[in-house]
C-alpha cells in the first residue's frame, strides 16, 4: 500500500505502466506455466472446445470445487453439473497436472459490448472463457492428447446424458420431428433370454460401436443388421429396447404399411439421424415379400407398395454414402415365410433366434421378480423347462400374478406341470400340440 502510494505520488504514470509491463514480460519469460484461453465463441459460432470443456468439467466439478451449477433440460436424462465462475478444477492426465479456471467478465466495457453485439448475442451480459494452465514442458501432450481426449469424452458424456427418442412416421415420407422420450425400463441386466445369446449380442454391439476404423478401412458402410425371430412373447421387442438403452441410440419405428412407394421410403431413410436403430416389426406381415424384382414396387390392389428388395436396396445404397452407426432390426414370428434375399449373408448380419424360456432365462426372471439366485425348486424347474415350451412373457406374467415371495416358486412348478400336461390330455396329445405350434 505504502509503495503504491509513493509510486502514485512521485513517479509518472507512463513510467509505472512501462515498468509494470516490463515486469510482467520478464515474469512470463521465466514462468514455467502455459495458459490456454478457450473463449466461448469463435467468430459468430460457438467454440466447440469451450462446449467440450463445459461438459467434461461438469463431471469433475462435483469432486473438486466449492460452487457448482446444476441444470437439466427436457432432453436430458439426468442432472448435469457445471463449474461456477472463478472456480478452479484440477485434473490429472497420465500424470500431467493441469488446472482449469472458469472466468466470466461482465460486458460493461465498451469493447466487450461491441464484441457481444458483433456476436448478435445481445441477451448475453457476460463474456466467458476457460483458462487451461499446465507446465510448458507438457505442451505437446496437452495439445495432441489431452485436448482431443477432452473432446472425445465430452461427446460421450453428452450422448450418455441425452434421453433416447422414439420416432414414428408422421406422414408417409417424414418422421415425427419431435419424437417422444423413450423410457423403456428393459436393459441387458434384466432381459431374460438365453445367457449365451445375450453375451453374443452385447459383444457384437460393442464391436460394432468401436468399429469406426474397421468400417473405414474396409470401405463397408458402418451399419449392422439383426433379424430377430421367434414365437410371440420371447423378448424380441424387449431386446430392441435393451439395445437402444445400451447404446443410447434413438429408435425409428418404421410401419411399412403407411409407406406407399419406394421414394417415400428413401426420404424416411434419409431423414434418420446417425447413431440410431431402424426397427421394422413383423416383417412377414407388413411387406410384400415374394416380389424379388429389384427396385420395383409391387402393385397390390392397385396401390403401389414398397418391396423387400426396394427396402434393402434403399438401405444399402443410402447408408453407404450418408449415415454412420446405423442399426436395422427386423422382427418376425415366422422366419420360414421370409424371402431368401433377406437371409443372404451381408443383408442381415446376425440372425438371432429368441426361443422359449430356458433355465438361464428363468434364473434371470426369478432374480428380477423375487431377488433370488438359488432355490431348492430350481432343479425341478430346470427339468420342466426342458420339456415345456413356455415363453419368458408367460413366466413373467405368472411371477407378477402370484405373491412376490420365494414360496411362489411352488406355483411356478405347478404352472409348468399343468402346461406340460393340461387336464384331460395325454402326454402324446400335448406333444402334438407343441410340435404343431413350431410349424405354424
Ligand atoms: N426375455 C424377456 N425378458 C424379460 N421380460 C420379457 C422377456 N420376454 C418377454 N418379456 C415380458 O413379456 C412382455 C412381451 O415381450 P416382448 O414384447 O418383448 O415379446 P416379443 O417377442 O416382441 O413378442 P411379439 O412377437 O408378440 O412381438 C414384455 O413386456 C416383457 O414384460
Ligand atoms: Mg414384439
TrEMBL record:
Classification via Pfam families: AAA (PF00004), AAA_assoc (PF14363), AAA_lid_At3g28540 (PF25568)
GO biological process per UniProt: response to stress
CDD domains associated with the record: RecA-like_BCS1
Name by which UniProt lists this protein: AAA+ ATPase domain-containing protein
Gene3D superfamilies attached to this UniProt entry: 6.10.280.40, P-loop containing nucleotide triphosphate hydrolases
Taxonomic lineage: Eukaryota, Viridiplantae, Streptophyta, Embryophyta, Tracheophyta
Limits of the AAA+ ATPase domain: 222-358
Listed cofactors: Mg(2+)
Native organism: Clitoria ternatea
Keyword Manganese: no
PROSITE patterns to which the protein is assigned, alphabetical: AAA
Keywords annotated in UniProt: ATP-binding, Hydrolase, Magnesium, Nucleotide-binding, Signal
Amino acid at each position: 500500500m505504502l509503495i503504491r502510494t509513493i509510486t502514485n505520488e512521485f513517479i509518472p504514470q507512463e513510467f509505472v505502466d512501462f515498468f509494470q509491463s516490463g515486469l510482467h514480460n520478464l515474469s512470463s519469460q521465466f514462468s514455467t506455466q502455459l495458459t490456454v484461453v478457450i473463449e466461448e465463441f469463435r467468430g459468430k459460432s460457438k467454440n466447440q472446445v469451450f462446449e467440450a470443456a463445459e461438459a467434461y468439467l461438469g463431471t469433475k466439478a462435483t469432486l473438486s470445487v466449492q460452487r457448482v451449477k446444476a441444470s437439466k433440460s427436457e432432453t436430458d436424462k439426468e442432472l448435469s453439473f457445471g463449474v461456477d465462475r472463478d472456480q478452479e478444477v484440477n485434473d490429472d492426465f497420465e500424470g500431467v497436472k493441469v488446472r482449469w479456471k472458469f472466468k466470466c467478465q461482465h460486458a460493461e466495457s465498451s469493447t466487450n459490448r461491441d464484441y457481444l453485439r458483433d456476436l448478435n448475442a445481445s441477451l448475453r451480459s457476460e463474456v466467458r472463457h476457460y483458462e487451461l494452465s499446465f507446465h510448458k514442458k507438457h505442451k505437446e501432450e496437452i495439445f495432441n492428447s489431452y485436448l482431443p481426449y477432452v473432446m472425445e469424452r465430452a461427446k460421450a458424456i453428452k450422448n450418455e446424458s441425452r434421453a433416447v427418442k422414439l420416432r414414428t412416421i408422421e406422414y408417409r415420407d417424414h418422421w415425427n420431428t419431435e419424437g417422444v422420450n423413450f423410457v423403456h425400463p428393459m436393459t441387458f441386466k434384466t432381459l431374460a433370454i438365453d445367457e449365451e445369446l445375450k453375451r453374443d449380442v452385447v459383444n457384437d454391439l460393442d464391436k460394432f460401436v468401436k468399429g469406426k476404423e474397421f468400417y473405414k478401412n474396409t470401405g463397408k458402410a458402418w451399419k449392422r443388421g439383426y433379424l430377430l425371430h421367434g414365437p410371440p412373447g420371447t423378448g424380441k421387442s424387449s431386446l430392441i429396447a435393451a439395445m437402444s438403452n445400451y447404446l443410447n441410440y434413438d429408435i425409428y419405428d418404421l410401419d411399412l404399411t403407411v409407406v406407399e412407394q419406394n421414394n417415400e421410403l428413401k426420404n424416411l431413410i434419409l431423414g434418420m439421424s446417425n447413431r440410431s436403430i431402424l426397427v421394422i416389426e413383423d416383417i412377414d406381415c407388413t411387406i410384400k415379400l415374394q416380389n424379388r424384382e429389384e427396385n420395383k414396387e409391387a402393385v397390390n390392389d392397385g396401390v403401389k407398395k414398397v418391396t423387400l428388395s426396394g427396402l434393402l436396396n434403399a438401405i444399402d445404397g443410402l447408408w453407404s454414402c450418408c449415415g454412420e452407426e446405423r442399426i436395422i432390426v427386423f422382427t418376425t414370428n415366422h422366419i420360414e415365410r421370409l424371402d431368401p434375399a433377406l437371409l443372404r449373408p451381408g443383408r442381415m448380419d446376425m440372425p438371432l433366434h429368441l426361443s422359449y424360456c430356458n433355465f438361464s432365462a428363468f434364473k434371470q426372471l426369478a432374480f428380477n421378480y423375487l431377488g433370488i439366485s438359488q432355490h431348492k425348486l430350481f432343479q425341478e424347474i430346470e427339468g420342466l423347462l426342458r420339456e415345456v415350451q413356455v415363453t419368458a412373457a408367460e413366466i413373467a406374467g405368472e411371477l407378477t400374478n402370484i405373491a412376490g415371495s420365494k414360496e411362489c416358486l411352488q406355483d411356478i412348478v405347478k404352472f409348468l406341470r399343468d402346461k406340460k400336461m393340461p387336464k384331460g390330455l395325454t402326454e402324446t396329445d400335448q406333444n402334438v400340440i407343441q410340435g404343431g405350434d413350431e410349424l405354424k
